[in-house]
Design a protein that fits this description.
5-stranded mixed β-sheet; CRAL-TRIO_dom; CRAL/TRIO_N_dom_sf
């Protein structure tokens, strides 16, 4: 990634000094930067090609989104009952498997086998934002303290095992989640490692890659097989996601026991996260009640829309080319 100039940081800092007079924005801004103001300004500047005025607008829009949607309180809103949360975890495969040798959290994501079919879209968005906020307010500050330096980004290992044409039905939800991340949590991922990539991914990647900004393309590394040997260069064996520990293991949420499989509700990360949220609800005197925490979905940037349409088109072509176009007639992108 490019280096942000000191001049650009100072320009954005001067613009953000005006936020001090607006208490709601000031409070939520502290939750965003967690004491690492310079690193936060750098992230938003990188997301806007180091243009201070554009980065300022992006950051203010982010803060307003947080205030309007009460994002600061989302870590006191547990998804209940527990069986419902377990269903979310079983169908939205994500977890913290460990840390890189540099201290960056390693998040594993089961892209291919996530079905997003056990709850409403609002629960999945709530869960995703809660993991983002827990990462930014708990995991990263803890890592920074442990390693004695600012750690404000993570690495992600994306498992494509099981990716198939039915992914078409998930495009809209994934676009919503991606837009939330791009607009409100920019540059939080240092590197994306793609593993267990089937042919269908390679076909989509070939047409999507030219649409990505250069800074994003540089972050993506497609590794051979399960990626074990390459990932061991940056992390210890214990921090490898379970689907990388042996060739052909796949990312099935049932392939390991709960303490080894970072997707499982029984994994320490999810246990700590869920208990933390329940504890925060007590501390903040928030009543625990059923029902999702609704968040307004941002309008996807034009680039996100173009990428989604390209992937959808490629999946259709892939289906037609394999003589199974009829099966796609029943695959619809739900109206959320």
């Amino acid at each position: 990634m490019g280096i942000v100039s000191r001049e650009a940081i100072n320009q954005l800092r001067a613009l953000m000094d005006q936020v001090a007079a607006e208490e709601p924005l000031q409070i939520t801004f502290k939750n965003v930067h967690q004491g690492y103001l310079t690193e936060t300004l750098e992230r938003f500047l990188k997301a806007r090609e180091c243009n201070a005025a554009k980065a300022h607008k992006m950051l203010i829009d982010c803060l307003n989104w947080r205030v309007q949607n009460e994002i600061d309180n989302i870590l006191s809103k547990p998804i209940v009952p527990t069986d419902l949360y377990r269903s979310v975890r079983d169908s939205q495969l994500i977890g913290l498997s460990g840390y890189s040798k540099e201290g960056l959290p390693v998040f594993a994501i089961g892209v291919g086998l996530s079905t997003f079919d056990k709850a409403s879209v609002h629960y999945y968005v709530q869960s995703h934002i809660q993991i983002n906020e827990y990462r930014d307010r708990v995991v990263l500050p803890s890592a920074s303290k442990k390693y004695g330096r600012p750690i404000t980004t993570c690495v992600k290992v994306l498992d494509m095992t099981g990716l198939k044409l039915s992914a078409l039905s998930q495009i809209k939800l994934l676009t919503i989640i991606s837009s939330i991340d791009d607009l409100n949590y920019p540059e939080k991922t240092n590197t994306y490692y793609i593993v267990n990539a089937p042919y269908i991914f390679s076909a989509c990647w070939k047409v999507v890659k030219p649409l990505l900004q250069e800074r994003t393309r540089r972050k993506v590394q497609v590794l051979p097989g399960c990626g074990r040997d390459e990932l061991l260069k940056i992390m210890d064996y214990a921090s490898l996601p379970h689907f990388c520990k042996r060739e052909g293991s796949g990312s099935s949420q049932h392939s390991q026991n709960g303490t080894e499989n970072c997707f499982s509700l029984g994994h320490p990360f999810h246990q700590h996260l869920y208990n933390y949220i329940k504890e925060q609800s007590v501390i903040r005197e928030q009543p625990i009640k059923q029902g999702s925490f609704h968040v307004s979905f941002p309008e996807p940037p034009e680039q996100e829309k173009e990428i989604a349409k390209t992937i959808e088109s490629e999946l259709h072509k892939f289906g037609n080319g394999n003589g199974i176009s009829g099966s796609l007639d029943n695959v619809k992108i739900s109206d959320y």
